[in-house]
Structure formats: structure tokens, C-alpha cells
Amino acid sequence: MQGKSVLASLGFLVAGSWGASIGALEVEVERIEVYPPALVLEGPEDARSLLVTGWTREGERVDLTSGARIEVPAGIARLEADGYLSPVRDGESHVKVSAGGKSALVPVAVKDMARTAPVSFVRDIEPILGRVGCTSGTCHGAAKGKNGFRLSLRGFDPEFDYTSLIDDISGRRFNRADPAQSLMLLKPTQGVPHQGGFLFDRDSRFYRVFQRWISEGVQSDVGKTQRAARIELVPADVVLADAGAEQRLLVIAHYPEGTTRDVTRDAFFTSSVFTVAEVSPAGGIRALRRGETAVIVRYEGQFATARVTVLGDRSGYAWKDVPANNYIDEKIDAKLKKLKALPSELAPDDVFVRRLHLDLLGVPPAPDAVRAFLAGATPGEGPSGAKARRDRLIAELLERPEFVDHWSLKWSDLLQANRKYLGMKGVWAFRNWIREAVARNVPFDRFTRELITGTGGTFSNPESSFYRIAREPVVAMETTTQLFLGVRFMCAKCHDHPFEQWTQRQYYELSAYFAKTGIKKGARPEDEIVYERAGDGGEVKHPKTGKPVLASFPFKFGTQVPDRDRPREELALWLTDPQNPYFAKAVTNRVWSYFFGRGIIDPVDDIRASNPPSNPELLEALVEDFKGHGFDLKHLIRTIVQSRTYQLSVETNEWNADDEINFSHQSPRRLGAEELLDAIAVASGAVIRFDGVPAGFHASQLPDSKVNEGGFLDIFGRPPRESPCECERRGEVSLSQALNLVNGPTIAESVADPNGRIAKGVAAGKSDAEVVEELYLGALGRYPTDADRELAREYLTGPGERTEKLQDLLWALLNSPAFLFNR
Amino acid sequence: MILPDRAGFRNLRAIALCAGLSSVLALRAEEPARPAPAPAVSFHKDVKPILERRCQGCHQPAKQGGKLDVTSYEALKAGGKKSAGFVPGKPADSRLVQVLTGEEKPQMPKGEPPLPPAEIEVIARWISEGAKDDTPPNAKLTFDLTKPPVYAVPPVVSALAFSPAGDLIATAGYHEVILRQVDAPEGAEPVARLVGMSDRIETILFSPDGAILAAAGGSPCRFGEVQLWDMAEKKLLRSVSVGFDSLYGASFSDDGKLIVFGSTDKSVQILSVEEGKVIRRIDQHEDWVFGAGFSKDRKNIITCSRDRTLKLIETDSGSFVDNLTSITPGVLGGPLFALVRHPTEDRFLTGGEDGVPKLYKIVRTAARQIGDDNNLLRAYEKLPGVITCLAMSRDGSRLAAGSITGVVRVHEVESGGRVSETATPGAVYTVKFHPDGARIASGGFDGKVRFIEAATGKVLREMVPVPVSPLARAPSGTGAEREF
């Protein structure tokens, strides 16, 4: 809207055609709507801006803000160059808004112009320091500041900033007797040399506010005035038709006492996927290509996200209804419909059986299991019969002992069961405790509470191992929040969290719940006892003040009775409370990611406002279901694998080929390290031995990651269990992996194992075709196709020793993506 | 403005229409890039800073060498006793350029090395481009003894000093040092207002014999200045421009012949009072220097800095001798902001960010062990907050420390025992003992000077040193008014 007001007030006729030249979509609209529908400006500093939306005949909504013309009759308000309406005098009037050939009248009321409040350091000055860049990490907000002048990063510490600006070096930076000669005004206007450059004009509102603040005597309201409690985005959900379409955002700050301010021009905007849509510093979104992105808005430590969907050219698209297996499919379908995408087909039975075994049990099906499942299909069963058959397989696998192996391994990884921290005996004790909990399907909230409140010796109370690993209060807090809330609190250790509303103070306040937890040596060697210190024993100090911090939760709900004597009990209850918005969400999202290779929020342990879920309605439904069933993990898993969505093919269609985050199809996932090793064992029939564990142990049953360190498992990304991060299990491809598969001893020895499938098959007199079928079923989970059989027959009837050639064949299968990936 | 190639020059209206439309279209049309002409030289941005740094020492309202004042465009244009300052458009004929190049004698700056050719070039180009004045309205300031600053609110008190006889108190204001009788009643007229070029005065010193008042300060990020005022006549003897920023921590030598001070360019400089110029520049610190003082025999300088060190330096050679503070990492408390010497002995009191005043001797007496802090004589009780200023009584028995939290404390120097504590509203920036040792004056953020009884910490009297008229407009405009 820049410059428009000038032209509008001159009545310059060219103004109407400016809309065309800017490049906004030319749309005919039936009517326009202005937000807010009525303006009330209270006090001389209350300037506000408008959003103009047009509605087409088809009922589609188009943003017309940037092309709109606003006519303000001289009198009670004035239109600024940046599109804001600022108050001039008390009174009531109308503003005429014209766009898309239509116009609307917006009533405007101005009052309280006589009420001049002094400039607030917290609400007026700090946002300017942020907006103009003074407190950014590249300038004075850096750890050492610039040229000796330090401010807190993004203004998270107004008390520090005030002292820096005002009292440092005897008040050198301001001049009360002659405000315009203050360094803090001369520097940003380049009245004196400033390495940070020219930041604003002498006639800008920034200058005006600073100058008034200095003239009023540089008062501080730190501690008396609070920052915004939250920011509201209008609109919060944006759907744009195609590249070039635009949408302006409004950002309204809400303060604790109930007042609001339009802070759009002082907020910061970023687009998470900036190739899909970009956003300007003024909050104007512009679509670049089809896809989804989140526009993250930050103002004074508050964050909000607007979801943006760019549909692109969808001519020829038509939604096809397919029956849903459960609510998961309903929520997914709703999103795909909105995106104008179509889900893939169901994966065939042989793909399904292998995938389900891998995801539930961590090991692919033996050939007989594949045969049995495929044989169960009857010609007339129809879709409901097929579904019932799959459901029966699901029910059966959920009760298998390998289920316990596979899921215990996952929790042992995250809980860092590692002999480095626990000793050999301790790691077995902790691992067995975890296995017991998985086997009994202990509700997840109880599981968590037992860990958090774990007390006693390692062997009598293995759950107390949690504290043998996280030995300092801040470490225990960081582990707890990342694992059980999915939130990365560590970013708030030295300053307020840069991407979320967590403050540095909250970091230490939450850590204080672990302040009394102590560890002492037990009677037996390798045993340590976790206990709670009595009275005032133990405290967490704030690094800035050096004073002890009282334990407190970063967000509260319901009525919790503080229990100063048993802080960990209090923490465990708060953590696992059904009202805690992060606890159930974190684990359901994490479990979801194990079945799709990606969470609904991704990464799964980095939940923040600036990392929104791709389908919040789905996540919400999963959470409610999970809580409604008493935090039952097995129920959650069953629900996920029973859904059609889980059972979709990895093959994409024209309408979902570009989708990577909405689960319109499955994606191939490389087998994890332990899965791979166990899969090689199944495919080859070999028994793979590990050091220090009973013979017959699978890779998924190993107690920790120090077994056969540096070998096959580590090459393929086994987590070292030194942190609670999901990212420890590395999925990247490396040269060692490639060489290991092609040339390494693991595969070479497995295929040649004298007790393996090939050796046994040859010894039992099986034909080539029979052995080949066994190999395909064991390695790829399917029958060989005719082409496969022909290829094998040709190779096997060629020159060379029969057993060796069969081993070559198996080697080739084990090196193929069909084996290495879960599809 | 773009005119179409075959513009209709025949018709004036067509031209006007074309011009009007093209100025609109020009904002949207894509022009081929042309090399931008070199920007015109700005008087305010380019020429004035040169004049401030190089010339205004001797050519300012309070002191007009050759009857020339260069502190404003009008004054420069009016020129001096010989001729006008410049002839617009003709640098070769302009006296300003002629004296700078040496074509006219004496060459300027007088008694100093000539200006770098690049700076003379800037001035010459400005004149050849028409010598236009682009000084913004709010920068047209001139204060002098006949037109002192007018205050709507009191400025901060950044420096103060008692005369050696104890009858006068000198306080820093905006562009001035204001002199009052110590025991003057409320509302009495000041004895004198010493109005100079610097926005801020950071240190006020009386020479040991009381004949000269030295004010060291400057306009932050523009220039530094040492002013020497004659106390008999209350007139400016000398103004010495030094560097590009304010000066800090100035001290006289005991014989009153030299002044040493620190600067934000990390240097320590020595000024000869008699010659009226800087005779030595010493670069030993790694950050801003906030305090500097002479040893009794003047052979050494002791300096403190934001780089956390207290250094011993040889006066005549400028050589570094020793770090009096231990420089072992982790041992240093932080930047040092204040420094004062014991009146009769070579012992220096310093303090800064860690809030602990420390007394040091300057000669090491034991074999060096890393981090031994051997020169530390005594550390005093920690003050709440950063120490901004320190003072010692004339008999060396007591010290006073002021902090950013507004606390002023008095301690016995020998025993370290606390004598008194006073809480004042707002940060304290300066604190000094009255020569009688019984009273202290403190000043700071709230613009008031407080007389405190040293033995008890009781505030005896408060005063606002500058005349305040609440209806006065700030000289450069407040911006609080809104114009419609």
C-alpha cells in the first residue's frame, strides 16, 4: 500500500491501474470484507492496519490488501505510508476501502487522544531495538556485543538492556538535556559513524519514540510492565490458488491486562519452506509453487504460525472416496482433499506382510510365514475379507516375543542403557526392566512416572538408572523434556529460546525439580543408590544472579498442589497429566514416525511453534484416542497399522508424487542396523553370534551398543546411546556401508553358512527352483516372478559350482534395494 | 526523469503530460543502469567533522584565533579578521584552502602537522561544488558564555570536583562546567558557567595550585577535548581537540605541568599544560582506557581499562613496565572503570565491574609466580553492582566508592573497615571528597549533587547544579510535539 495514500488523496486516476501493474491476481469478486470490520483507536499511539479479502462467485477467497485503496477523510485519522491508520483527533467517522471493483465502509472511532502515556521501555523501546536489529545475534545481541556495547539477544532481558543503554559508562549513550544529541539517536541515523549502518530516518516513528523516551527522562518500567502474553495471526490458515497469489498477515499482540496492539510492522516473519512461498518483512506472503509451508511469526518472545497451502494447477483433479479403516484415514483424507491430492493404492499382500513384520517385530518374515499369509487369501474375499485377514496378522504379531525385543530396543536406545554409565550388571538390569514393561504393556504414563521418580539401588530398582545416566539437574531436565515432552529446552540455557517462548529462567526453574536428587555408592560394586536429599539439600542457581531458583513449571494447567518435599513426584504428575499438552503428543508422534519414517511433527523431539504438525487434526485425534485408552502403546500401534494409510503402497500417482509430508503414500525406509543384521540372518538362515551374550540372541536383543563395537551394527548407524536424541540413529549412507554390503564378511559368511538355507536346501536335495523360491521369500518376502525365475534358471544352468552360484544369487538379493529397504 | 526519444517538444502541455506520466511510470519502468555520479560533498557529514577534529580547538566561540569561528556554517562563511572563510565555487581563491595547503602563512593547523591531502581535497571539492550548507535545523547549535545551554530537565552529573581551597564545587553540565560556591544558599547564582565545545565532560580537575581548571571530555563518537580554564578570569585558556571520541580518567601530575588521560581508541595520552598540546601518545591497552594517573615523581603512569588490566607505564618512553593486576584468566574481576591515586603515596585504588575496590602498589617486591597478584595491598568490601567512581580524602585516610546501583560507601583505607553507606536513587557516576575530608559530593543519573557526611552517610544537602526552566525547549527539539 506504499504510496497509495498519497495518490488516493490527490484523486489521481492512475491509482486504479496500479493494482494490475503490481502483479496481484486479477480476480473478479462478488464482495469484499475488511478486517477488522470496525476500528477503534484508543490513545495517540494506537495505530492499526487493515486486511481486505474478496470473495469470488465460486466462493473462493482472495486477498486484495496490497491492491486496495483506502480513502481517509481528513479529520480523525490519517493513513501512513506503511498502510497503518493512525489517530489524529477524538471522534467518529468512516474510512472507504476499495478493491476488486467493490468498496466497503469501515467505521472508525478515535478516543482518549488526551491520554498520553509515557513511553514504555518494555513495550515500546525493546520492540524497536529488535525490529531495527540492535539486539540481533549479529550485532549487539551477540555474546560479546559490538564495540563493548552489549544487549541481550533479541531483548529477552530488558533489565540488562536498560542498564547497558542508560547506566553504562556514566550515561554516555543518552543526553537528557538535548535528546537529539544522544548517541542512541545519532548512531542509527549515521549522525556519527556507526558500523552497524544506517538504520532509520530522523523523521521515522522509531526516532520519534526514542526521542520522546529520552525527553521523558529515560524511565524504566522493567518489572512493572509485562510483555505481550500471546500474538494472534489473521488469517492463521492460508490457502493460495497458485504461484503469484498473495496474502497479507495481521499480527495482533494481546497483553495480560486485556489490551491489544497491531504489531504487524514490528514482527518478524519467516517461511519454513521458502521455495513454496516467501514472506516479506511487512508480512506479505507470496506463493512460488505448489506445496505447503508454515509462516512463523515472532514478536517479543511470542511465536505463532500460519499454515500456508499453495494448491497449484489442479485441473483434471477429482477426489475419489475410499472407505476408511479408522479415524486416521478420515483425518488424512480430509487433508489430502484440501490439498487436492489423492492417496496411493493399497500395498499388495506380500509387501504388507514384510513391512508389518519389520515394523512390529524388527525382523522380516521367514519364508513359511510369507507362504502362510499369502495362502490365506481366498478368491471371493473382497476388500473387507482382505482387511480382516490383515487384521488377524496384526493381532498375531502383536503378541510375538520379537515384538518385545524390537520395542524394548527402541526404549533402551532412548533411555541410554549403556554400560558406560551403568556398568555391565547395571545395563542388564535396566534393559530387563524395560523389557518387562514392554512385555506387560505398562501404560506409558505409568512407565514415565516410574522412571522420573526412580529411587533406590540399581539392582533393586533398575528404573533409578535414569539418574545414573542424567547425573546433573540440568541434564536430567534436558533429557526429560526432550524424551517425554518432545521439546528441546537446551536452547534456553544461555538466553531465552530463540524459536519458542521458553525463557532462560524457566530452564533453571524446571531443572530445580531435580536439585535434591543425589547419587551415592551402594554396598555392592557397580551399584549406585538414587535418593532424595532432605531439607534444603541441593539447589539450582541462576547463572546471572547466582541466587537459587525455586522449582516451577514453564506452563501450568489445572490445580497442582506444590510438593516441596517430593519435587520429583510433583514433576512426574505434571509431566504425565492428561492435560499436559506435550506429553501424549510427543509419544504418539514419535510412535507414528516409526511406521512412516517421519513424524506428523518432524523432527519428533523438536516440537515448537515454528515447527508445526503437517496435520494437527490427525495428531489431536491420535492423542485423544491414546489418552482415552489409558496411554496404551499397543493400542496406539494397533490403530496405526490397521489404518489404510499405513498399508498404502510406496508407488505414487500423478496427484501425490510431490507429497512428502502428508502420508498420501508410504515411503521406502532403509532397515535399521539391528533389523538389517537380523534380516540377513533370516534370509540366509545363518546364526550370527555376538560377544558376551548367550548364543541365539538376535541383534534386537543386545543389551547395549558396546556389543561388538565398531562392527557391522555401528557401520549401519546403531545409536551409541550417549544422548536421548532420536537423531542418534543415523540414516545417512556411507562408503563403509556400501563396501560392507558388497565385500564385507557379514554377508559373505552368512550366505556361505554351513547351516544356512542354501547348504540345508542343497543337502536335502531341493531343486534349483525350490531353493530360489526359498531365497526370494526369505530375502524379499515374496515369491519370485516369472522373470526372476527365468533369470535364476539361466544363471544356475551356466558354468560354475552350484552351491557357489546359489550363494552368488543370495548375495545379489542381499545387495538389492528390495532387501535393504522396508517398502 | 525519462523523456521518450521523440518527445513532442512542440507542445508545452504535452511535455508536462509526458513529464507527469513518466515520473509515475518511471517508478515502475526498468531503466538501463547508468553509472551513478559521485555524491556531492556534504558540509554536515563530511566537512564539519574535519573542522571539529582539526580546527575548532583554536577557532571556537570561546576562543577565536584570528577572529575566526569554524563551529558553524555561518561563522565559517563570515570568516576571520583577514577575509571571508571561502569563496563559493572557487577553492583556489578560498582562504580556508589556502591556509590548509600552506599557500598562505601561517599554515593551518598552526603548530601541528598539516591536514592529510585527502581531507583538504574534501574541503576543496565542497567549495568547488558551491559550498552549500546542509546542516539540519536541529544541529545548528551554538553555545557560548553569552548563550549558555538552557535546561528543561537537569542533565546527568558525569563529573564534579572541589577546588583545592574547598570554596568552590565544579559540576559538569551539557556543554559546560558550572561553578558554584560550596556553601551557597539555595537558588544562588553560579559563580561562573564555563561553556565549551564538548557535549560531555567526563573529568573535572583543578590544578594543584588551583589556578587552572581542566575539563576533559568530548562529544561521544565525534571528538575528544581537553579544556583549560583560567580560574582567575574564568576564561578559556586552551582547547585541545584529541581524537574522535570522548576522553576519560584524566589526572594532573603533582607538579601541575602534565595531564594524562585515556581514550576510547585504547590510547593513553599526555598533554603539556604550558604548551597546550598533546606531547605523547601511548598504545598499550586492548580496550577503552577509563583511568590514568601519574606516580608522585611523574616517572610512571598508571592506567586502568575495560581490558581488565591496571598497567604501569614509563612516562617518558611510553614503554610498558608491568601489569599491576594479575592477568591470569579467571582471576581478573572484569573491566576497570575508576582509578585514583593516594594523595601522598604511590598507591592506586581501582574498581570496576566486579564491584570490589582494590588498592595496589606499583613496585613488585617478590619474585613473580604466575597469578600471584603480588601488587595487591588490599581488597575492600564488594559493592552491589558495578563501581563507576572512586575517590580518596586529602589526607589519604578514607576512600569513597560509587556504584551503578546508587550506593556510595566510605571505608578506612588502612584497616578496610566500612565507615558509612548511603543509598541514592539512580546510578552514581562521580564521587569526590571535600578537602576537609568530612564531606563527600556525589552525582549521577538523576542530575542532582548530594553532599554526604562521610562519617555517617547522612545526606546533608541536595542540589541541582544547573538552572532549570521546565518550559524550555531542548536545543535540538524534543520531538514530543506532534505536528499535523
User: Which consecutive residue ranges of chain B, at least 5 long each, have pLDDT under 50?
Assistant: 1-30, 478-484
Q: How far from one another are the termini of chain A?
A: 52 Å
Distance between the termini of chain B: 31 Å
Number of helical segments with 4 or more residues of chain A = 29
Structural class of chain A: alpha+beta
The greatest interface here is: A-B, 36 and 46 residues
Average pLDDT across residues of chain A?
Answer: 90
Helix content of chain B: 10-25%
Specify the oligomeric state: heterodimer
**What is the helical fraction of chain A, as a range of percent?**
25-40%
**Beta content of chain B:** 25-35%
Largest pleated sheet of chain A: 4 strands, mixed
Radius of gyration based on Cα positions of chain B: 27 Å
What global shape of chain B is seen? globular
Would you mind describing this structure in some detail?
The complex is a heterodimer of chains A (823) and B (484). Chain A is of the alpha+beta class and 823 residues long. Chain A has a 4-stranded mixed sheet with strand order 2-9-8-5. A 4-stranded mixed sheet of chain A has the order 11-19-18-15, with no helix packed on it. A 3-stranded antiparallel sheet of chain A has the order 1-3-4, with no helix packed on it. In chain A, a hairpin with a 4-residue loop joins strand 16 and strand 17. In chain A, helix 3 crosses helix 6. The longest helix of chain A has 21 residues. Chain B is mainly β and 484 residues long. In chain B, 11% of the residues lie in helices and 34% in strands. The N terminus and C terminus of chain B are likely disordered. Chains A and B meet through helix 4 and helix 6 of A and loops of B.
